Amino acid sequence: MNVLIVFAHPERHSLNGALLDVAVRDLEAQGHKVQVSDLYRLQWKPAVDRSDFPDVGQGDRLKVASASARDFTAGNLTEDVKAEQEKLLWADTVIFQFPLWWFSMPAILKGWIDRVYACGFAYGVGEHNDKRWGDRYGEGKMAGKRAMLVVTTGGWPEHYSARGINGPIDDVLFHITHGMLFYPGFAVLPSFVAYRVDRLNEAQFADVSAQLCSRLRELETASPIAYRNQNGGDYQIPSMELLEGLEKSGETGFSLHVAAP
């Protein structure tokens, strides 16, 4: 299996860096091929701007989606973006590893998504009519591939529990797992989250490493999150609202978009 790890931490000699080493060693020991996109080492440019679309004239209004679609179709995206897209196409599974900063990913990783997920590549694909609304949410360029988040946080597990003040961790990460991974077609595995990482001692690090390796050995066999496919009949098109009667009694929020087992 080909595995791409998109790594976003500014300090390579960190807990995240150590966990990256653990992951690469374990995956390669299993016989998988691994590539790592270390975004800070690459000095990844996170902001979408005019330099991404040199064919847009200085006096012209920059419309990012249309410029992105035009340059993707013409093969004129910048070389750094095309290189990351090639890695995505090569990979069978993509792991996004990052520390949880202000309830989301570091800006450099969001910028990777913004630039690599070009229109025509990760969104804006497929026909739109009264029966389907493009190839997204379970369909799209990444269909047939798997993805998983590896996340570290200084918070306690209780802080991210069903009654925790930060909100359930699956809700905190929903905009990533559902909105950035499932949207372009990935089958999304449950996230691996390491808690209270600022205070890990050697024995606790060994335990977290073992837990991570256990999850990595299930990449090909673990059941993905049962997100509902957009074009699978559960949503009213084009309003994209879940049809009445599919939810559990009293159910609201993000869990509506996960099918009952």
UniProtKB/TrEMBL annotation:
Q: Does the keyword Metal-binding apply?
A: no
Gene3D superfamilies noted in UniProt: 3.40.50.360
Database matches in Pfam families: Flavodoxin_2 (PF02525)
* Flavodoxin-like fold domain mapped to chain residues: 1-211
One Gene Ontology MF term: NAD(P)H dehydrogenase (quinone) activity
| The entry's keywords | Oxidoreductase
Tell me which InterPro entries the record gives.
Flavodoxin_fold, Flavoprotein-like_sf, NAD(P)H_dehydrogenase_qn
Instruction: Report the superkingdom from the record.
Output: Eukaryota
What sections of the protein cross the membrane? none
One cellular component term (GO) for this entry is:
cytosol
The family note in this entry says:
Belongs to the NAD(P)H dehydrogenase (quinone) family.
This protein is called LAMI_0G15962g1_1
